[in-house]
Amino acid sequence: MKAVRTAIELADGRELFYFDDEPGADRSGADTRDLPQTVGTSQIRWEPLYAEWAVIAGHRQGRTYKPPKHDCPLCPTRPGHASEIPAADYDVAVFENRFPSLSEDTRDNVPTVTDGDFVSRAGAGRCEVVCFTSDHNTSFGHLQPRRVRTVLDAWVDRTCALSAIPEAEYVYCFENRGEEIGVTLSHPHGQIYAYPFVPPRTATAVHIAEEFYAEHGESLQSRLLKQELSDGRRVVTETEHFVAHVPFAARWPYEVNIVPRRHVPDLPTLTEAELDDLAVIYLDVLGRFDRLFTTPAPYIAGWQQAPVRQGRDAWHMSASIFTTRRSNNKLKYLAGSESGAGVWINDIPPEAAAERLRSGRRAHDR
Amino acid sequence: MKAVRTAIELADGRELFYFDDEPGADRSGADTRDLPQTVGTSQIRWEPLYAEWAVIAGHRQGRTYKPPKHDCPLCPTRPGHASEIPAADYDVAVFENRFPSLSEDTRDNVPTVTDGDFVSRAGAGRCEVVCFTSDHNTSFGHLQPRRVRTVLDAWVDRTCALSAIPEAEYVYCFENRGEEIGVTLSHPHGQIYAYPFVPPRTATAVHIAEEFYAEHGESLQSRLLKQELSDGRRVVTETEHFVAHVPFAARWPYEVNIVPRRHVPDLPTLTEAELDDLAVIYLDVLGRFDRLFTTPAPYIAGWQQAPVRQGRDAWHMSASIFTTRRSNNKLKYLAGSESGAGVWINDIPPEAAAERLRSGRRAHDR
Predict the structure, then answer these.
(1) Bridge partners for B122 per DSSP
(2) Are A155 and A130 in contact (CB under 8 A)?
(3) pLDDT single digits (tens) B200-252
(4) Domains of chain B in sequence order
(5) What are residue A273's DSSP bridge partners?
(6) Which residue intervals of A126-255 are DSSP H helices?
(7) How distant is the Cα of A24 from the closest Cα of chain B, in angstroms?
């Protein structure tokens, strides 16, 4: 059953959407805060040598940073604490980020400037926050499948809505989990970015996928999935509609792709049965990450969907979940080779990572 | 005056090179340790969808990790402590990494395997460690210009030597400084990697630089440098032969490129006068990073040299120095947007970063 969506407006005009597991919840609570309206000033700048955009978002330096638990802006509103969500409880809530890296109003506020080879444009797009649960102290991996399905419904809804923004070229749904990777709010939540360009590494992959699809009539991801299944050493778990496996050339210590068996470009293209199935395998994989070490692993989970306009026939969606932790007490840092040269060095062979994730055995502390 | 080079062999057969500021040092000390010979097992694996290699180096998990100061492997050897450097003192010492991500012996140990679209090859190349000083407690930014010149001579020598490795396609000299970016040995040191491929982001830039050079007869970097100088807002400091500036589309909170005014492909092509001048501006820039915050900023400094074989006429070298710190107590993390989508969000406008670096004023803590 699909989640029930209710739209409201926050005190400063930002949109908020409730996605409820069941119909009937009262969503009439108003945001009573006296919030100043923020004006987006971010811009994107073109780097001619590397052919890529960087987002310059100066106003974000003052954003909310590790507030104490009683001050959490993602918890429900209660007497004496008006949070971002004006309800005493909620299932899933999505709202526009108050400190967005990209926003639609920059379209009118930030001019395009061309000065020789230097080009800057408005950081037009949108950044949304997705609260997975009203419970401050849990994590995505501990949600019930029904709730995960509601989150998936929210991602589907928001992918469609954000794709309709005129400047949007790519919609990226993701979750950062864990202070070790820079999470500044511990309440279980993810984010959605609508970028006004296709991210550079994705653009390369889309180009390659399009060439492959034109030549072979199947997606490159389908072909690679068949090879992963026939090899088997990197497969972590399978369901009727999805396969979870460590990539052959994994860049991160523990990294899993969840790939639909059917060639579909994005989350909105999945059937009801596939979404129900995805909720199960996604939970399963997150649970395996939680059990890898003596404490839950920090991770980044993101959806590699097709761009809004390009390569949609060729692209075959997947989720990518990876941790930067390489043992109980050691993190993989992105230092000179990764951050400076763009070359990832991975200390955990993908087959060994898959074996550990498959067996549920803890990575021993070396 | 050029540094004096002396080559010796460590107990397990690895090469070590002393680079001395002045002639006359006794470099006859032998490595008396009983060191087992290590065998390189790393491989590179091709990711067909993203068209890039990842390095898989499983044997590195057991590498030396934050040893106590009295056990530092980069300090000089003293009675009761045989370090990697069998001398009571040294100026600059370069040796093969005992736990290399890439090594020449993999050529014979690690076969090329092709299985459908999955291709792996030997991680053939070389990883060297560069100790900048025998003083455990100082940092690069506090060296004397004469010593920096010796380090530059070492980088020149090693760039030439590593370029001669049959598999080497790119030589990358870099320094990671600071525990916050994952440095596991606090003794002032850098590294040199000889990769058996051109790093992917560099490969894109080389392609763009070649097209620009063919069309305009000047390097793209020369043209961008002229624009930076005529604009001036992002220039940090200048010398006779070099300009230090924040890039127009900077990805990191504080990021500086040091660019030679003359179009040269790499460090070995610099004249004696340019090398002397580079020592001065490089020290100046590192000092500015040290003074940005109340404690010295962690940084990554790397040399964007031309590849060994490709695009050497078009490429115009530079150094890139950047910190992941965005204020006294906050780091820039590479989370979902950067690590997942490959899109950098920078909270510090490049002009503001340049102004702070130029003035020497501390970034205020917000």
Answers:
(1) B43
(2) yes
(3) 999 999 999 999 999 999 999 999 999 999 999 999 999 999 999 999 999 99
(4) 4-197 (3.30.428.10), 201-359 (3.30.428.10)
(5) none
(6) 145-163, 200-216, 220-231
(7) 34
Could you count the other beta carbons within 10 Å of the beta carbon of residue B166?
8
Among the partner-chain residues B50, B248, B337, the one whose CB lies closest to the CB of A45 is B248
> Which H or E run includes B289?
helix B272-291
Using DSSP bridges, classify how beta strands B318-323 and B299-304 pair: parallel, antiparallel or unpaired: antiparallel
Looking at this predicted complex, what is its ipTM? 0.93
Q: Which residue among A47, A170, A340 places its CB closest to the CB of B320?
A: A340
Q: Which two tokens stand for residue B306?
A: 């031309």
The pLDDT profile of chain A, 366 residues, written as one tens digit per residue, is: 789 999 999 999 999 999 999 999 999 999 999 998 888 899 999 999 999 999 999 876 566 666 777 789 999 999 999 999 999 999 999 999 998 999 999 999 999 999 999 999 999 999 999 999 999 999 999 999 999 999 999 999 999 999 999 999 999 999 999 888 878 789 999 999 999 999 999 999 999 999 999 999 999 999 999 999 999 999 999 999 999 999 999 999 999 999 999 999 999 999 999 999 999 999 999 999 999 999 889 999 999 999 999 999 999 999 999 999 988 888 888 888 998 999 999 999 999 999 999 997 655 443
Q: Which amino acid is at A50?
A: Y
| Torsion B302-B304-B310-B313 (CA) sign | negative
Quote the CA–CA distance of A277 and A149 in Å, as a whole number: 9
Element at B195 (helix H, strand E): strand B189-195
> Alpha-carbon torsion A193, A195, A200, A203, what sign?
positive
* Residues present in chain B in total: 366
Q: Which two tokens stand for residue A228?
A: 């992963």
Please answer yes or no on whether B201 and A342 come within 8 Å at the CB atom.
yes
Contact indicator for A196, A123 with CB cutoff of 8 Å: yes
Q: Which site among A248, A257, A321 would you substitute to test the B interface, given the most B Cβ atoms closer than 10 Å to its Cβ? A: A248
The separation between CA B233 and the C-alpha centre of its own chain, rounded to angstroms, equals 27
The Cα–Cα gap between A15 and A19 comes to 13
Q: Which residues of A touch B256 (CB under 8 A)?
A: none
Nearest to A88 by CA among A35, A37, A26, A32: A26
Kindly report the backbone phi and psi dihedral angles of residue A337, in degrees, each rounded to the nearest multiple of 5, phi listed first. -65, -45
B189 is catalytic: yes
CA proximity to A327, closest of A357, A352, A297: A297
